[in-house]
Amino acid sequence: MTTLKQPGLLVMDVDSTLINEEVIDELGTAAGVGQRIAEVTAKAMNGELDFAQALAERVALLKGLPVSIFDQVHQSVHFTNGALELIQTLHEHGWKVGVVSGGFHEVVDLLVADAHLDFALANRLEQEHGVLTGRTTGPVVTKQIKLNSLHEWAQECGVPMQQTVAVGDGANDLPMIHAAGCGIAFCAKPTVRAQAPHRIEERNLMRVLDFLD
């Protein structure tokens, strides 16, 4: 059983898990296309759409936004109740904490600094002359990339898989949730709740500790 008493690794999703909001929805609101983006986001997170296709569709709607929007969005999002306390508690017990996100490094990196996270991986938005082009650059963070990150970071930390925890709310989190020593659906979409080994229905990330011996 996964235990707090030995060093381990927690990997979690960002949007609607580490934070209460969906960053791409916040960007969409700033671009005046919030409702259109939110509808695609909901379908993608419930597994009704291919994630990479849904991402490209939403990012295209952000074309023309100034890059200054990232600081604005960073100021508008909120850490989920218990998130910072959970990270601090795990660090005190010798754990490492990482996030892997279908969102964007431009905002995730600011959250990483705020929360003192050890690892982070997210998508990158292409920029030209200080505005977004409506495209991403580099590999898209898919469910397979999320799973790979869990394995790679565990190996880097010298942590056995039974000492890993994965937490997320969307369909693209399911592979890492199943692979971890302790996989948790956090206030998740119905598809994810039905398939995850463990569930947290309260928006309090400190409840993750309930599953650690």
From TrEMBL:
CDD domains in the record: HAD_PSP
The reaction(s) catalysed by this protein are: O-phospho-D-serine + H2O = D-serine + phosphate; O-phospho-L-serine + H2O = L-serine + phosphate
Record EC number = 3.1.3.3
Origin species? Bifidobacterium dolichotidis
- Alphabetized GO MF terms: L-phosphoserine phosphatase activity; magnesium ion binding
- Looking at the UniProt entry, the stretches that span the membrane are none
Q: PANTHER family annotated for this entry?
A: PHOSPHOSERINE PHOSPHATASE
Q: Name one GO biological process term.
A: L-serine biosynthetic process
Name used for this protein in its record:
phosphoserine phosphatase
Instruction: Give the InterPro entries listed for this entry.
Output: HAD-like_SerB (IPR050582), HAD-like_sf (IPR036412), HAD_sf (IPR023214), PSP (IPR004469)
Q: Which Pfam families does the entry link to? A: HAD
